[in-house]
Amino acid sequence: MKITKRKASLIGVAATTLLIVPGFTGCVYAPPEPHYPDDHYSETVSEDSSVPETVSVINTYKVTNSELSEEYFANDKSVTMARYYEMSDGTWKTDTNTYKYRLEITGRLNGAVKDSTYVYLSNIEEITFEQAWKAAGLSSNSEDYFDPSEAVLVEMK
Is residue 8 part of a domain? Predict the structure, then answer.
């Protein structure tokens, strides 16, 4: 196949267009994250299907801007790493799972000058500090990590 100057310029324009189209990140597809507007999310849940109960969002915890994370850690402020919601029925929800508990786990790592706090949404009633720091990414053993349906790290301080 012979490529003429016209074909070559059209190919160049198409390639350049792909590079400058806003939002185009390549050919790898990832489905969009679900979006629950702060005050508009609700679902009907009930153990007795004849009596529907509406569950709604009480609070939304938004992800901390990455540019502020270092400053927040330095000033002992909590950094939110995953968007999550406090629900009206007492549960906690991420965009993908629902959890029974929100656990704040505080302790001191070996050699650290101050305490660390890990906040997990969990379906496990208790998580030790050792489990928390290992599952937060500090362990090289994959057995130390939680399945996302069991627990997820949402904040650190």
Answer: no
The whole-angstrom separation of Cα 52 and Cα 139 is 43
In a domain, 4, yes or no: no
Structure-model confidence comparison of residues 138 and 47, the more confident one: 138
Query: Do residues 150 and 122 touch, judged by C-beta distance below 8 A?
Result: yes
Q: Residue 49 and residue 51: Cα distance in Å, rounded? A: 5
To the question of pTM greater than 0.85 for the whole model, the response is: no
In the chain, the number of structural domains is 1
The encoded tokens of residue 141 equal 């053993």
Parent domain of 42: 32-156
Q: Are the C-beta atoms of residues 155 and 80 closer than 8 Å to each other?
A: yes
